[in-house]
Amino acid sequence: MPARDLSVPEDMETKRLRLRRARTRDAPMLFRAYSSDPEVTRYLTWDTHGSVDDMRAFLERAHDAWESGSEFVWVIEERSGGAAVGTISVRPVGRRAGIGYVLARDRWNRGYMTEALTHLIAWLSAQEGIARIEALCDVDNLASQKVMEKAGMTREALLRRRMVLPNLSPKPRDMYLYSVRS
Q1: Rounded CA gap, 54 and 60, in Å?
Q2: What does pTM read for this prediction?
Q3: Which domain holds residue 76?
Q4: Is the separation of the CB atoms in 90 and 97 below 8 Å?
Q5: Residue 182: what pLDDT?
Q6: Number of folded domains in the chain?
Q7: DSSP 24
Q8: What three-state secondary structure class fits 150?
């Protein structure tokens, strides 16, 4: 099943969160919430954003990717108050779906990302064309490892020198591969 054949909802809700399709106008609040924070972006594959324009460019690429079916990015909002606290994304490739996520530092340790990830995994598992759900994280990113394990993912492999994380090193770093069978 090609990714473009997935029935991808623009909005989803959990007990405490709303996941909604990212929009370019979200740039200022997402820049303030997380993309300008070096501690939050430490383990990400892109540089810490130096301006709102950097986040706007990211969101423009996210819009184009959504339209092409290559990636789907949702803003994570608190249902009470509507504060944008992060993003979560899915990159479908054939029968696989890769997940990525980021959460504002002032919302860490509240179970938000586990809640969002668990919901997204459940939705992906219900998609007939998805046979495998996976995510990567740096071997030193203990918080992300815990989130994935709480969401039902299993550490499957150590991938040596797999990915450059520009906020840590110009050299490829070791990553853990986590997965869930859908």
Answers
A1: 10
A2: 0.94
A3: 3-181
A4: yes
A5: 57
A6: 1
A7: G
A8: helix
